[in-house]
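Human: I hope this is not a bother. Would you mind checking the protein record under this note? Thank you for your patience.
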Amino acid sequence: MTPRRAALALGAVFALFFLMPLGLHGLWIPDESRYAQIGQEILRSGDWIAPHFLGLRYFEKPIGGYWLIALSEAVFGENLFGARFASVLVTLLTTLLLYAFAQRLWRDARTSIAAALVFLSFALVAGQAGYSNLDPQFSLWVTLGMVALYFAFESGSRASRLRWWAVLGLACALGFLTKGFLAFALPVLVALPYALWQGRWRVLLTWGPLAVGVALLVCLPWALAVHWREPDFWNFFFWNEHVRRFASATAQHMRPWWFFVPIVFAGALPWAALLPPALRLAWGQRGERATAFMLLWFAVPFVFFSLSKGKLPTYILPCFAPLALALGRYVVQACTQGTAGSVRALRVNGALNLLIGAGAAAALVWLQMHEPLYPAGEGWGLAQITLVLGCWLLCAALQCWQPLRHWAAPAFGVWAFFALVPAALPLALVHNKMPDQLILAHREALRGAHTLVSDDVGTAAALAWRLARTDVVMLDSQGELRYGLSQPDVQGRYVTRADFPAWLAQARRSGPVGIVLRLDDAEEDPLLALLPPDARMHRAGRLVIAVVP
């Protein structure tokens, strides 16, 4: 495929599978509703310095990642497309960056296209691309930093080294503004062993300070501004979000050290079975400086994230860029050489995808027969899921049938999955995990409420985003708002369940009270019992919307 045709194909894939589905399903809670609301709050408050969530101080991240979401909402509107476009944009930029990097390394269009295609079709990458969150942004800055680091080491001229070390500093600064000090740690952790391995430590010591200087120049204005505005920001952010999350026994999202091993294989679908031979090939070529760097780029962050006490699947996203380079090179060599071993590996990969698709189809049939996911009236959703599974199985079968000719077919199965499945989920799951859709349906009734209440942070964020209000009172739930709610200048934003009846009686004197509850099965009756008899109630699954006049 020529570069022109590859660019046209990439544009078509993005338009069809990534851009068009952005507005077809509601915001997932808690992450998407949180980031959409924070971006909206930046726009409406005009505060581009101190992060706030639901009108409360929210110091878990710097503000740079929220800037891009806010700008996206400013351009495209405070809607589903605007809230998610930033993630699609940075995923596209990361894909193009990997294409350019592979092209400069190997001067082979097929390898560059393969690496870009593999990256864009990794399940973890494709899934996060249409999801409003900060991980795709951070992955872009880490990828840019690693590319810059490699060329900073390898550049022969002074001008070229100057440029690449400066780009490294810029990438670190943007990563820092998105997620914090991790953006500085990852390049250093890769640069040190690479410099020692390749005997380039003098280059690191001579030019490294330039990158540090550029990063400081970019970060310092905001760092000083937020310190002046919120003196406690750096204390909370450093100790709670870095030290405690990495090393504390009480870290959030505690996981075992091996947690990311299955995540890498699951996130690498539909190419999971090709990981061992691709990494084995890369290890055999470790004498090449580019391949040695690529191996460190994957291994060092993987080990670092595994050592952390707190883990989420998306933390490992920056490791998928070097995996895409290794897999892209492997599949091109496999198709070029056509050895029995490479053909067998591609067939095994197709067979694994067939097995996964067949297992999912069997599970769907069993559930529909015994515990229907799609009750009567939701046949369209069931039809879409069936179509997705059929596409997945067809793509896997093509790779099994003609592995050299149709090696890329599984990519379309993944793209179809993430484009169609979120909009085809059962309504029970939609109402539970995407409450903004039901809130949207009852927005006019809720708009008339003088006071808003919710018992769940993610649901409260969806409520605030849909109504463009930040004054949601939390009912017996604090979660990630605990720090903001604890500030001395915050009053009346939290009420316990025991105090709720008296609080509600007082609040309704000022006007109607809008209440959105996300019920837990074990707490269903006690929560509903708190609502007065004259409340106008609508329930869908575990979600209850009530307006108390």
About this structure: Residues 340-370 form the longest helix (31 residues). Residues 219 and 283 are 37 Å apart (CA to CA). The beta strands are 52-53, 56-57, 451-454, 472-475, 494-495, 513-518, 536-540, 543-548.
